[in-house]
Amino acid sequence: MAKKTKKSKKKEKSTKRRKKIKAIFSRERIVTEDSGEAKELYNQSRYGKLLESGKLQLSLLEGLYLLEKGRLKIVDGRGKKLDFDSYLGKAKRKEKNFWIRYVVFKDIRERGYIIKTALKFGADFRVYNRGVKPGEDHARWVVYPVHETTSLTWHEFSAKNRVAHSTRKKLMIGVVDDEGDVTYYEIKWIRP
Q1: What are phi and psi of 85, to 5 degrees?
Q2: pTM of structure
Q3: CATH at 151
């Protein structure tokens, strides 16, 4: 029997990590199989919510991101495999403003931050400092994604700022242009 070299062991580990996790598109969520890879995805990067069954429940945004990254194999309720475009079509029907929210979600994730929903704060997302996992510390920002042509009234803008201030988080607006680039604006209260 041949000995495994360090290089072949690393390649073997890398192959195991790249195994696609099986998941199903179920209503407004993605639910993975109960697997070590799914648990690792949660433990290392805090994607989704780990269920008692050992399965991982992901948001539609997390599901699309992980599908695009080649980490998930997703099927619908009838067992039909979903590709990026068919998944996107289903998600757009389920969530208003899905594409704009996805562009901001993806951009923040790729910058190395953990991003989670912030519905209980009245925002789209909460974002943690790099290296901080939810539960270890509080989120630093609440984020509202908007398209560059979107206009907010002063009342809407003030309400967003109050939510951030009352939850002791910084307000960030992620403005998405027609090319899919995101510009961030951090807003702070100033007392004269």
Answers
A1: -65, -40
A2: 0.86
A3: 3.40.1350.10
